[in-house]
């Protein structure tokens, strides 16, 4: 039996208990004088095992509870939270939230999301797959993953394998009468290895994450992938400073899309801290490129029928034929901007960057993207925080491979890639069909026409 897995019936009982608690606290908040109130309550359980060199390093069992309450006295807001769900702690949390609200300044944008926007349909998104794995089996799986990686000639050491199983139950309720219940599981496997020669040591890793453990790649495939990536980095060189096209591998390309999300999100916009300020309806990417939010994908990493305020989610275009179709807004940022919520309180849901290129025809797989790159830089890792979302200036440490005539030539490290995000987004040449599905940002590799590469 699993050490942590919550059964179907037990999870429903826990959700019932959280629902009753949330509704009771909202009722008491109204009795205390609050004009509006909202509650988020959650229970998270997990098992995490780390193995290194065949030996167990750590075994961690977690069971975390969370309870957050926000009350509104007119346009005055107060929030408080606790990790203790007993009656005294809940009452103290309610008292604190009400006390804070009575003494804060009024904010015209505060308040619940509009009642008319609350979700009314709750489809089964296939997010609940408890993993029936106990500690002994998790340790054995970690050892199997690590052994597969260490079996490769040239691997000299290991930083360890990890096996994690997690389950989350949550309820969001507010004084509109809305109650949203969610169950989700998220499991992961990973391995980090070291290889080296007289020129120095190299480290790399691989991982997999899934809603259902049935969707994992095998232990051997994961170990092989981690080893192949690590060995490929041996003998890495620096590059001389140059300008060239840059291909971002899918897991790194997510970061580029993440910068776009940050620039068109409400908080940055109403603070006027975005390089894409006032760009709705304007071209921000090539005319062939479209990005769509799809929150109702089965087993999606970011799937959900409602956002953090209870607003119903729906499929919605973010970028259409290169034009920014909308911003990413919760109700507060929407009111600050004189707009309407886009159902994105708490973040984005399953953003799909549609593969393609400006030449028409089918999108390229990874090999095809390398051929399209021709001669230039493949980036497989970025480091540092050199991104200014106000100006769009982008400068980050990077590692990867120099590519010649569409073939990997040699690994590179200790370089810096730089450009402006506005130019990078407009300069996207192609998006590959090699989509990385381990995230809620679903994109293949992304080829940018030109960046500055600084090295020796």
Automatic annotation (TrEMBL):
Domain of life according to the entry: Bacteria
Residue ranges constituting the Metalloprotease TldD/E N-terminal domain according to the UniProt record: 37-101
Record has Transmembrane helix as a keyword: no
Molecular-function annotations in GO: metallopeptidase activity
A GO BP annotation: proteolysis
Domain Metalloprotease TldD/E central residues, every copy: 129-233
Record-annotated Metalloprotease TldD/E C-terminal domain positions: 241-455
SUPFAM superfamilies: Putative modulator of DNA gyrase, PmbA/TldD
Record's keyword terms, sorted: Hydrolase, Metalloprotease, Protease
InterPro entries: Metalloprtase-TldD/E_C, Metalloprtase-TldD/E_cen_dom, Metalloprtase-TldD/E_N, PmbA, TldD/PmbA_N, TldD/PmbA_sf
Pfam families assigned to the protein according to its UniProt record, in alphabetical order: PmbA_TldD_1st (PF01523), PmbA_TldD_2nd (PF19290), PmbA_TldD_3rd (PF19289)
GO cellular component: cytosol
Family classification: Belongs to the peptidase U62 family.
NCBIfam families tied to this protein: PRK11040.1
Protein name in UniProt: Metalloprotease PmbA
Organism this protein belongs to: Dyella monticola
């Amino acid at each position: 039996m699993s050490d942590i897995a919550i059964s179907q019936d037990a999870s429903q009982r826990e959700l019932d208990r959280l629902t009753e608690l949330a509704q009771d606290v909202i009722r008491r908040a109204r009795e205390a004088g609050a004009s509006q109130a909202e509650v988020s309550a959650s229970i998270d359980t997990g098992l995490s095992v780390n193995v290194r060199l065949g030996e167990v390093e750590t075994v961690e069992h977690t069971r975390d509870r969370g309870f957050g309450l926000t009350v509104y006295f007119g346009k005055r807001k107060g929030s408080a939270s606790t990790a203790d769900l007993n009656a005294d702690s809940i009452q103290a949390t309610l008292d604190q939230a009400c006390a804070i609200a009575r003494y804060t300044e009024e904010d015209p944008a505060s308040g619940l999301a509009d009642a008319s926007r609350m979700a009314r349909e709750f489809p089964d998104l296939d997010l609940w797959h408890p993993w029936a794995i106990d500690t002994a089996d998790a340790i054995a799986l970690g050892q199997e993953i690590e052994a597969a990686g260490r079996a490769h000639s040239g691997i000299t050491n290991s930083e360890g394998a990890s096996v994690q199983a997690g389950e989350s139950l949550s309820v969001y309720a507010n004084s509109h009468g809305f109650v949203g219940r969610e169950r989700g599981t998220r499991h992961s496997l990973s391995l980090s290895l070291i290889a080296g020669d007289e020129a120095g040591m190299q480290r790399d890793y691989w991982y997999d994450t899934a809603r259902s453990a049935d969707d994992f790649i095998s232990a051997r495939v994961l170990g092989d992938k981690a080893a192949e990536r690590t060995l490929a980095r041996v003998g890495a060189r620096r590059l001389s400073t140059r300008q060239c096209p840059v291909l971002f591998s899918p897991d790194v390309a997510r970061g580029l899309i993440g910068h776009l999300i940050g620039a068109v999100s409400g908080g940055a916009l109403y603070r006027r801290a975005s390089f894409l300020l006032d760009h709705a309806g304007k071209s921000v990417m090539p005319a062939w490129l479209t990005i769509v939010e799809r929150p109702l994908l089965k087993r999606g990493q970011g799937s959900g029928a409602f956002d953090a305020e209870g607003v119903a989610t729906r499929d919605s275009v973010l970028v259409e034929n290169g034009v920014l179709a909308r911003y990413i807004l919760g109700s507060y940022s929407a009111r600050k901007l004189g707009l309407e919520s886009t159902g994105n309180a708490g973040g984005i849901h399953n953003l799909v960057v549609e593969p393609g290129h400006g030449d028409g025809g089918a999108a390229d797989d990874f090999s095809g993207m390398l051929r399209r790159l021709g001669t230039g830089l493949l980036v497989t890792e970025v480091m540092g925080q050199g991104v200014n979302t106000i100006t769009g200036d982008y400068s980050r440490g990077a590692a990867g491979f120099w590519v010649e005539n569409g073939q990997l030539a040699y690994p590179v490290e200790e370089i810096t890639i730089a450009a402006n995000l506005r130019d990078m987004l407009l300069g996207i040449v192609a998006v590959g069909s090699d989509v990385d599905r381990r995230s809620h940002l679903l994109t293949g590799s992304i080829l940018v026409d030109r960046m500055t590469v600084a090295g020796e």
